[in-house]
Amino acid sequence: MHCIEKERENMASLDSKNSPPNPSFAIRDTIRTKFLRSISTKEPSFSHFPYTPPRFCSPSLHTSPISSPLPSYTPTNHTINPETSYRCVSSVLKRDGQILSIAMSNGLVYTGSDSNVIRIWRLPEFRECGQLKTKTCMVVALQVSHDKVYAAYGDCKIRVWRRTWDGALKHVRLATIPRTGGYVRSYIAGKDKMVKHMGPITALAINISEDILYSSSFDKTVKVWQISNLKCIETIKAHSQPINAIVVADDGVLYTASDDATVRVWRRNFCSGDRPHALTITLSAKYSPVKSLTLTPEGNILYGGCSDGYIHYWYKGWFSGQLQYGGALQGHTHSVMFMASVANYVVSGSADSTCRVWTKEQDGHHTCLAVLVGHRGPIRCVTAFLGCLGEESEDGCTICTGSLDGVVKMWRVTRMKNSTERSPQNGCDFFDLQG
Fold this sequence. Notes:
The chain has about 425 residues and is mainly β.
């Protein structure tokens, strides 16, 4: 009896309010939803985030003015294309902690981490050539457009740099969004649209043609910033749960993905006054929180990576602009945390520590070209560009991945015309361990 009472006391202490909180994305006990596929419980925990997002929330699929019906689909088993070679050509470990963000522009790769340093890498040799430092830590999102670098930090603010090439590569700090003075005046005046995000920023997106920067947050909103004056011109209350990813198409259409298991589509109407962005349709992701988004370069296919490992995709009509559900890609066993696309390649990074490279064939089917294995932690961010380090004649791409294991890797993926020309898969040219 004494042993039984002791065991009960131990169990009670585990359930007490003083016990440590569950990791990020933990399933709430109050929700009892029937899943088509079980959601992984091994998603990463961003221990330093001031806000711990819920892992799953009861979906509200039909609360918006327009909602798409629940799609029916049969996931297809994908095999690796035998005529594809892939290998890790560089692997770098710094003492920066978890790699949380990555962006690529004009032969430069920017990586953000738990630390207050954004590292700059020059391609094709993948050599560090500079750093951007601030007093604030944790770079959770990065975007590079033309000569400007935008970085979202753990303090819910965005820093902006201008890149110059006057004899040597230089970055000049321009501003912090929102500006401190504007934030205080807005708070006193009670203007909600000018207040900074109330939760950590999760993603950034840029619409160059309309001079707009978008930022999404765990506070369930998307803020619209005018790039020319760095002022917030609109706050979109986009979802009922935290927003994990945003992407904007060339035609100005904005896509937002959330823990409420939906992707929402927004169009901008310049004649609508203070709230020009209007919801046009809500896409269902089969009751699974949507963690990542990407569009094909042409903007005709939208991909949404979910916490159950599936990647759903929708086709965009050429004339109507409506989105039609296409199916789901099956392969990952854990949450799809980040995606990128270049040409006809789609790259997905997952909490299962693997990165998959997909392509859409001429017959409309998707093929998994490669599974990149090497990271020892969840892959948090990816970027990709065409060619293989200057060998543009080859049909392939180069991929950079950042993981919560603190390692940045660069991969070379090539589709060979002759399978006998393939190089050893999963090989690594060199590993660079740096302090």
